[in-house]
Prior knowledge:
By secondary structure, this protein is an alpha/beta fold. Helix content is about 30%, strand content about 20%. Strands 2-13-15-14 form a four-stranded mixed sheet. A four-stranded mixed sheet has the order 4-5-3-12, with helices on one face. Helix 1 packs parallel to helix 2. The model has no long low-confidence stretch (mean pLDDT about 95).
Amino acid sequence: MTPLPDKLPVPPFTRPVRGAVALPGSKSITNRALILAALSKNTVTLRGALFSRDTRLMVTALRALGFTVETNEADLTIAITGRGGEIPVREATLEVGNAGTAARFLTAFVCLRPDGIYHFTGDEAMRRRPISALLAALATQGAEATARNLPFTLYTDGLRGGEVTLDATESSQLLSALLLVAAHAQAPMNVRLEGATVSRPFVEMTERMIAQFAAGPTDYAIEGDATAASYFLALPLVTGGAVQLPQFATAGGLQGDARFATVLARAGLMLATADNPAGLEASFQPGCTGRGVTAGFNDFSDTFLTLAAIAPLLNRPTRITGIAHTRRQETDRVAGAARELRKLGQHVVETEDSLEIHPQPLTPGIEIETYGDHRFAMSFAILGCHNLHGDGRPWLTIRQPACCAKTFPHFFGLLASLRAGSQ
């Protein structure tokens, strides 16, 4: 794969989009499945797994903990030999980068060992992301951390079980981390929440996957990433035309972010189940304008930037609510979105929990700052596909586009292939 430049001008589509997109495997499912497979008593092969920075960090950490993990990127498979709740290595250094799932899931996971010493480190951005509530809950189980944020050393004493109180208002991953390991505690564990948790569908994903792995599978299929799908679902609203998403789970899937498709449908996107192969087709009439919408994103907030980025092309204001917790993700996504949209000439009303975007003529020649956040790079790249000048000249540039390697390393290559196939 050719390295991406530090600044990438986005070539607009000069014709309506047409083509199919092979979605990467879900990051959320892949990293949960890696933990659950390591906890099982079998060797489990994950099929359709995602290979990205976040999942590689998880694989590397499991190997550092003594697990046998065999990867085959060409076949998109990962085979993990489970140890039934045992953590083989007593002391290890675990690098979690800026991967929230790796940081939180591994923190609870290593606490299964009664005498462990684990040194956690990560990127500067991860050091600002919430984990202290999880460490406080684990302290009641006997674990001792040298700090309440990364980096820290965690001294573990096994999981005793019983009632555990957890504040998961800042991230559902804190609750998922405890749920993933609860069955391996020394006594039944009951997690009592202080306040509500955000992104509840991700907790439901965790619960359903725990039930699936309780059946003892030796093969496990990873769904296509619904959050990654959001960019290509939005693309027809920008360019006109149609996109097929064969790996999109249309019914009975694990991912709450699939609900984003219904928000775009309210904006005018046409959705149809693709017959061959099974999946979804998204289409929009060329030359038409989508409708501004009001939508709450608390349950699927990873997709709100996709809507925010294309809001300048809609015919009336777009209001996005339920996003206060995204201020403490890879970056402050609410403030960052408002800042970049204003650079593009948009009128934006920002509150702690919402954005209201009033469409204005787009300002060309803008460089979008990504803040090291993959979702900024991909969302605003979709806006850049709009043929603003009418002659295919790029008018929008993405800074540090390689940050999309966190979850979707081939995003810009896939977008280029779609563009070439639509000429």
